[in-house]
Fold this protein.
Amino acid sequence: MLELYHNDMSSCAQKVRLTLAEKDLEWTSHHMNLRRGDTRTDEYLKLNPNGVVPTLIADGEVIIESTVIQEYLDDTFLETPLKPKDSVARARMRLWTKQLDEGVHAALGSLSNGTAFRYQTMAGRSEEELKEHINRIPDPARRERTMDLTLNGVDSSYFAPAAMRFVKLFSDMEVVLQSNTWLAGDEYTLADIAFTPYVTRFDHLQYLGILDNLPRLSDWYERIKARPNYQTGINDWLNEKYLLLMAEKGKESWPRVKEIISGS
């Protein structure tokens, strides 16, 4: 039996749902409201001390970290394998997914918070309540980053470096896709699933202009969106309030983002 603690718009939760959908696995949903602080309760922190989603419960065993969960699912449920058979291609796949935990995910959080989610975090909270809410984030680096982005938005010291990290990432993806159908080779793998939510977030933030000169990555994204697991893992869970907020604030911020990524 699989149980997933997740959030509708969380990029990490999205990639686990995409994996579950691609493998056609049944699971029980525990949806967490991140703005309410559901992941920072004592009860949830016993499951996941990092205070984040997703958390998978598999036959009573707790598994955390989305990349680890993806690999667990692929190792346990062998039908529809999502790792290449070839060891070199598997290594390429892991080099892609490794990047997410080495700065890419934090960069996405910086862009999302600095552009849009800061408004949700601040809404209805006094200055003291805001500090109390953010100070409940267990990781000190993430706590500091969230505070700066919430207070300063696109002018945060974290925002421009995050945007430039994606300029490099998307350029690297474009180069690989010149000779490969998918990120790790000719097979759709966990690497493609893992990066799907990141390009999707740029779409939701109205920042897809960053792909204007990247035709192969743009084609990859169109093929990704046409896959059945995209509907089940992402579209079926879209939160209209989040989408409207991201679209509104993203359109406002895009001129500044365009200046940053063009080196202005």
